[in-house]
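2024-03-11 09:14:02 DEBUG pipeline.ingest accepted 1 chain
2024-03-11 09:14:02 DEBUG pipeline.ingest length=308
2024-03-11 09:14:03 DEBUG pipeline.predict start
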Amino acid sequence: MSLESLGLTHDQERVYRYLLRTPHADPDEARAELDLPRLATVLDELRTLGVIDRSLVPLPPAATVDLLVRHQVERTSRELARLDAAFDVVRDLAEEARRGRPVELVERIEDSAGVNRRVDAMRDRAETMNAKPLPRGRHHTEEATRRYRRRLADGLVSRTLVGAAALDLPEELAYARHLHGLGDLHRVTAEPFLPLLVIDRRVAFVLLEPGRSDTDALMIRQPGIVAALVALFEKLWERAADLDGLDLSATEARVLRALAEHDKDETAARALNVSLRKYRAHVAALMTPLGATTRFQAALRAKERGWL
């Protein structure tokens, strides 16, 4: 069986097989032996796919096939989501015929129950991006866990961004870790952001009053606006810390953010609404785990770790 059926090009497969046969291959010798002038480009492509590492060491065959199958599943899911957009057009046309007017690309929905009904109706969604800066106040049940695990196993790609303040409550941290363990990847940030839900990069939900969970929401299907919200989520996600690697508290995350944003201790303490003495105690406590001797160095190393 050729690996081309799993997404590799002819040249990529040739190079991968050569590296399996020739450990510690010299690139110049490989280029000559394979008669492949564009070898450097193919190697970069294989590295991007994760099939080889920087030292030209290939993944074992079983791991490679598993990886390529997962890539194919992800591509198929994205393609199915794109094709599913055709049915959105059918629904829009039917709705226009029923209402006798064009379907709105930005629609106001009353209360969270209405939002939940709209989201639940999108049963075949392939990807979700969820930004949750506030505590969710939810508790998982065994039945909900089973349903969600099945959807993730069926290919749902879900990422959830949570605010550091939301994890001050032990039950919120436990809930985040529970979903993260199921495959709904969670990251944590101390940056301020607004609640947001994006489905399949085509539909977005935002609250009209971000500080309230019971307020009306907007369902947005205007492509330009949705694309901008997706880009915003991706930037926040890139800078956030993975929940598995989180080894600082929500309070420490806020102190680090204040340390990076304010030049004076007095200003930072006011921003955190704590006394100057307490703020300095927090900063001093962070110096050791960061291996820092100055506050500038502490902020720099926190950024290197992805804490800021």
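2024-03-11 09:14:41 DEBUG pipeline.report Residues 108-244 form a domain with the Endonuclease; Chain A fold (CATH 3.30.870.10).
2024-03-11 09:14:41 DEBUG pipeline.predict end
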